[in-house]
Amino acid sequence: MIEIKHLAKKFAVENPKKLSEQERKDPRLQGRFFHSVKDVSFSCKQGEVLGLLGPNGAGKTTTLRILSTALKADAGQVMINGHNVLENPLIARKKIGFLSGTTGLYGRLTGRENIAYFGQLHGLTAGEIASRIDELANLLDMQSFLDRRAENFSTGMKQKVSIARAVIHQPELVVLDEPTTGLDIMATATVMEFIQRLKSQGTPVIFSTHHLDEVQELCDRVTVIDQGETRFDDTVEAFSALADGKLHQSFLSVLNQSQVKGVA
Amino acid sequence: MWMIFRKEWKELLRDRKTLFFMIALPMLLFPLIFGAIIFFTANAVKDAESKVLNYAIVGAEYSTQISQALADAPDKFKRIEIDANADYAVLIKDKTVDFILVIPAEFGTNVLDNGPQKIALYLNDAGLNMVYRRVNEIVSDLSDQVQQDSFARLGLSETQQQGLLEPVSLERKNVADERENWGEKIGGMLPYMIFILCLQGAMAPAADLGAGEKERGTLETLLISPMERYKLVMGKFLTIGFAGVTSALITVASLALWGLVLSQGLAIAKVAAFMAMIGWIDFVLIFLMLIPVVAIFAAVLLSLSIYARSFKEAQSYMGSLIIFVLLPVIIALTPGVKLEGHWVWVPLTNVALAMKELVKGTMDYFALIGIFTSTAVIAVALIAFCIHWFNKEKVLFR
User: Of A255, A224, A250, A226, nearest to A237 (Cα)?
Assistant: First the structure.
């Protein structure tokens, strides 16, 4: 069970004069600080997949970075199976598998070495790493390129290795930041199948996306963030019901309400 | 920490750019550059010395000895006839002649009556030409002969002749032993070379381990691994420091090796004798002094690298760092700056001065403890800063 309550995070603006007109008009800019996340709350139970939606700059990545302990929250609470992430980040890191928005790999290491390195960082033994890599290679269809240097990988190959790297330690929670962005149809299908598999194993998955078809196919819950605040947090069915089953319309309707609320 | 160190080294050793800067450059390029300079300089000197020089002589009749001496060396000099009123500068610039000797009408070898004599040599002295030296050999022979004749006319004994040639002289009685002499000459350059090599060897991996992680997008994943931040920093810090020391050691070893090869055994005995004079304990102490210095470099480089947004930005910051490293070493090379008083406490300058003293064999070993401790304290402080820097979100996510 993952519970996120009233999360808030602000950043100091290095040079306010360099901000664009649009950025200066953003209500989240207050003095020298930009309140990227103002009040975000949602929860995800065992075996659930939660889709995190929102326009660009809504605060999704900041939220996921706080969840993964890369950033510290200014306020709020993140609980993973009873452990406070913000108070015990080291313990939380062992429980979380995080895939960031950038598919960063060590180019001079092979795919296998990239995955193994993070296995070592998580304290796995050589035997555990080897068997886990074999398992993941089968699941993500990576056998053909696993022992090649990552510098020559396609985007799809990189993303598969990145996902394997994120879950090498069999985390209790998997957080994926736009995992299918830039992938071709085949690679996207592999990633989707993998998320489905995690779900069937009872591992909660939180992933941000702009693809509503992925939400429809995979998600049990939907959370929409806009202007750094949670605007919607409920089941996919409830989300779909907002516009008679048309998720695209549902999304726009949530955003429109959000803007009305913002103006008001 | 060692896991990070091992992984970083595995990556570094697979990086052609790092291998080039850390191993190939010091092993091949530096010796090649030095070798090429020596080769071309030696050839230029040889050419200048063996070239047949075209010359003109005005007033040859006033000194038959000189004109005859030039004529007697056809493999070295070739006479060209010119108009006595010609423009000498034009003739030399258009390479009609290499030099023109002008012997005045009043020239005579009776210096006891006429005083010292002057012969004008017109030449283009820009560049390597050896004209002055080669003509002066002939004029000096005549000068020595005139001197001997004059002494003979005066009826002076050999002692009197010596006394007149050098009535009062200062005899150098150097109490410094050979090690101190050599150490003074070489010891100052040693830290200059080693510091720069350590810094240069550490720069490429430092840029890769900080800014490179940001640019590749691997930093965020690394930061959320269950590895304490200080271990992460220490792993990277050790990699950079080790790379710096390795690069310096490879360079010094390769310079020594290629120096022996290029000089074809010349001066080996002298170098070997000098090296034998320096005790192994001094070499160990020099290496020990280098450890906190490299630690300072590694901590500063890693801090700059992690602050930078990109590899390119990191390299530009690091380029500026060379000035800050060179300055204290240059101060140590300045005459009058010695390992005493406040200089003992000036970072890097004190280590450079201590290395010089160790090579000379005049080190006050008690002062060494203070220098090592103070440098180590600075290094530890900088490592602590680096760890603090690695915990700042505005640095990591700029």
Answer: A250
B172–A contact, CB cutoff 8 A: no
What ipTM was estimated for this complex?
0.83
CA distance A214 to chain B (A): 24
Q: Is B49 on the interface with A (CB under 8 A)?
A: no
Which three-class secondary structure state does DSSP give residue A203?
coil
Give, for all 264 residues of chain A, the pLDDT tens digit. Answer: 889 999 999 988 877 777 777 777 788 888 888 888 999 999 999 889 999 999 888 889 899 999 988 899 999 999 988 888 888 888 888 889 998 877 689 999 999 999 999 999 999 999 999 999 999 999 888 999 999 999 989 888 998 999 999 999 999 999 998 888 878 888 888 888 889 999 999 999 999 988 898 898 889 999 999 989 999 999 999 999 988 888 889 889 888 876 655 544
How far is it, in rounded angstroms, from Cα B92 to Cα A6?
Answer: 90
Residue A13 has a CB neighbour count (10 Å cut-off) of 16
Query: In terms of pLDDT, which residue wins out, B197 or B295?
Result: B295
- Give which of B113, B392, B32, B93 is closest to A72, Cα–Cα: B392
Instruction: Give me Rg for the CA atoms of chain A.
Output: 19
Choose among B232, B201, B195, B188: nearest CA to B8.
Answer: B232
Best residue of A67, A83, A108, A115 to probe chain B, by most B CBs closer than 10 Å: A108
Cβ count within 10 A of residue A191: 22
Measured CA angle at A175 (ends A169, A177), to 5 deg: 125
CATH architecture of the domain covering B49-165: 3-Layer(aba) Sandwich (3.40)
| CB-facing half-sphere around the CA of B117: CA atoms within 13 A | 23
Q: Give the predicted TM-score (pTM) of the model.
A: 0.76
CA–centroid distance for B252 within its chain: 13
The two structure tokens encoding residue A63: 């939220």
| Domain boundaries defined on chain A | 2-106+171-263
Q: Is A65 on the interface with B (CB under 8 A)?
A: yes
Domain boundaries, chain B: 2-35+177-396, 49-165
Q: Which fold has domain A2-106+171-263?
A: Rossmann fold (3.40.50)
